[in-house]
Write a structure and sequence with these properties.
alpha/beta, 7-stranded mixed β-sheet, globular, single chain, about 475 residues
């Protein structure tokens, strides 16, 4: 799916107002905003298709799934407005009935907590079958963590109280000093390896960074509240159709020069495009593949070097029907299993076919991707059976998509920041480089790692670029 055309579509020295690098959701939104204002845009995408990490696939069984992001959230107002404008129908994520917690080999069915104060590992604390003292200690640790998150300015995390110390303390080290329960250790680990900004291990990032992810993309606000009929990837496809004349695929950018009047963008072997400004809407690690003249400030380059992508493999198990619903279960599972830390019901309201989405994350994803295909399949099926019983071991189709292997993403859902980087280099995070502005979900201080963040960053970048076009 997506637009296909020649890498030679861009001509030398073509003059436009703004060049957009990257045709994922954020780049498409930026281009759309500028085009609405009557500005001439040129969109360059390295892949052979648009959409970036927003891409859908029709399976052998006829189900339509999102290989990348799939959910909208309760406070994802920009995404909701876009979906409504495109006249795409949505439906609530299925949370009726009980979920499953699998802890140290013990499987418990429990209701999802309605109030954060009653929550342990997403479930009602009284239902998870753990000792009362462990639950009390876990809730106390999470309360302390939430207090840190509440103290953080989403735009400037380095200004938080005690920020330097928090930024030098890994998530694991903070747990060693502040969590007296394995339950809260695991909840914080879950936020790092899976949570909306996940894909990193608790020793990969600081407690400041993890708290920032909850300040900007709080899991307590229901970020997986709804799904799109026909999958989210169609949003990027429809935007592509709107912007088709301006999109050029197979066109990786390797240089951006700028002076007092404009930018020159270097594409392929010998192509150049002149513009008044540029928007770079690609993951932070990929920005380092571009040569900038003048070069990026040393602090910005250092921050990019300390902003790797999370490691994430997405899994879909597709069944004739959502059999778990007939057992008063909702398909949501969390556990300290070896391969799958999460499953979620991604079926249509009818429950036909039944679709479970799951994730292999962080260092476990690295180990998983080195297995043979047969061993990968067995590892996934073993955990699905542990969560949902023997029927879960017999999917009609099992799809495993490794985002770490995607050359123009190098991971998912988003980037993370290594310990010490926020307080040493973070001030450069969102700053434009002259006439070059940043987009992509990672550039947002509101819901980064989600579609909402991608849209937010695209709109902000378009507004900044407009200042160069209409000074």
């Amino acid at each position: 799916m997506g637009l296909h055309n020649s890498s030679h579509a861009a001509s030398n020295h073509e003059d436009v107002d703004v060049v957009i690098v990257g045709a994922g959701l954020s780049g498409l939104i930026a281009a759309r905003e500028l085009h609405k204002k009557g500005q001439r845009v040129h969109i360059l995408e390295a892949r052979a298709t648009t959409g970036g990490r927003m891409i859908r696939q029709t399976t052998i069984t006829g189900a339509v799934i999102d290989l990348g992001g799939q959910w909208g959230g309760a406070t994802h107002h920009r995404f909701q407005a876009l979906v409504d404008e495109l006249n795409i129908k949505t439906f609530p994520s299925y949370y009726d009935g009980k979920g499953v917690l699998l802890w140290d080999g013990k499987r418990v069915e429990a209701d999802l907590a309605k109030e954060p104060s009653n929550k342990v590992l997403f479930f009602e604390d009284e239902q998870i079958g753990q000792p009362a003292d462990q639950i009390t200690k876990a809730k106390s640790a999470m309360q302390a963590f939430r207090a840190i998150a509440a103290s953080i300015d989403p735009d400037r995390p380095w200004t938080a109280p005690n920020a330097v110390e928090l930024d030098r303390t890994t998530i694991r080290a903070w747990c060693d000093n502040n969590s007296e329960s394995r339950l809260s250790d695991f909840e914080l680990e879950w936020l790092s390896v899976v949570g909306g900004s996940g894909g990193f291990d608790p020793w990969d990032a600081s407690i400041l960074h993890l708290a920032w992810t909850q300040a900007v993309a709080p899991q307590d606000e229901g970020p997986e509240a709804w799904l799109l009929n026909g999958a989210a990837g169609q949003v990027a496809e429809r935007l592509t159709n709107e912007l088709r004349p301006f999109i050029h695929l197979n066109s990786p950018v390797h240089g951006i020069d700028q002076n007092a009047v404009g930018v020159t963008v270097h594409v392929g072997d010998d192509q150049q495009i002149q513009a008044k400004s540029a928007i770079v809407a690609i993951p932070p690690p990929l920005r380092n593949k571009i040569t900038f003249k003048p070069d990026l400030p040393a602090e910005m380059r250092a921050f990019l070097q300390r902003s790797p992508m999370g490691s994430m493999i997405k899994v879909f198990a597709i069944y004739p029907s959502a059999f778990w619903r007939g057992q008063n279960l909702n398909g949501f599972a969390v556990g300290n299993l070896k391969t799958l830390k999460l499953t979620a019901d991604s079926s249509l309201p009818s429950g036909t076919p039944g679709i479970l989405a799951a994730f292999v994350t962080a260092s476990e994803a690295v180990a998983f991707q080195q297995m043979t295909a047969a061993k990968q399949r067995q590892a996934v099926l073993d955990d699905l059976v542990a969560y949902w019983g023997p029927e879960a071991g017999l999917p009609e189709e099992l799809i495993i998509h490794n985002w770490n292997q995607e050359a123009w993403s190098t991971g998912a859902f988003t980037s993370f920041v290594s310990p010490g980087a926020w307080t040493t280099y973070g001030q450069q995070w969102q700053q434009s480089h002259g006439r070059v502005h940043w987009a992509g979900t990672e550039a947002s201080s509101r819901w980064p790692g989600y579609f909402e963040g991608a849209i937010e960053a695209g709109i902000q970048a378009a507004n900044k670029a407009t200042l160069h076009v209409n000074p």
